[in-house]
Amino acid sequence: MTLALCLVKCDYQSVKDTLKSINKVKGVVESHQTTGPYDMILKVKAASDSELRNIVRNVGTVSGVLAVLTTIIYNVK
Q1: Spatial contact of 34 and 41, defined as CB atoms under 8 Å apart
Q2: What does the angle CA 52 – CA 55 – CA 61 come to, to the nearest 5 degrees?
Q3: What pTM was estimated for this model as a whole?
Q4: How many CB atoms lie within 10 A of CB 52?
Q5: How far is CA 63 from CA 10, 34, 41, 49, in A?
């Protein structure tokens, strides 16, 4: 299993709609609207690194998403 956190920057006018759409992406297991340079943080679970790439790619294609920064979590407990 691959676990990652994604910081998402999106169009400020559509944060809530964008978050609703992102929540429909398979593999996104948790999402939160945040303050600061990124507008939301996502917890993503994937069976493999290649599946993670596909999930992040799908998040990046959601209308309103401007940028995605992904960090893989090691030593999951």
Answers
A1: yes
A2: 140
A3: 0.90
A4: 21
A5: 9, 18, 16, 24
Residue closest to 58 by CA, chosen among 7, 16, 24: 24
Copy the structure tokens of residue 33. 């609207």
What pLDDT shows up at residue 75? 77
Residue 36 tokens read as 């600061």
- Contact by Cβ (8 Å): 67, 9: yes
Residues of the chain with confidence (pLDDT) below 70: 76-77
Q: Residue 43: which of 1, 5, 2 has the closest Cα? A: 5
Q: How far is CA 48 from CA 23, 36, 54, in A?
A: 20, 30, 10
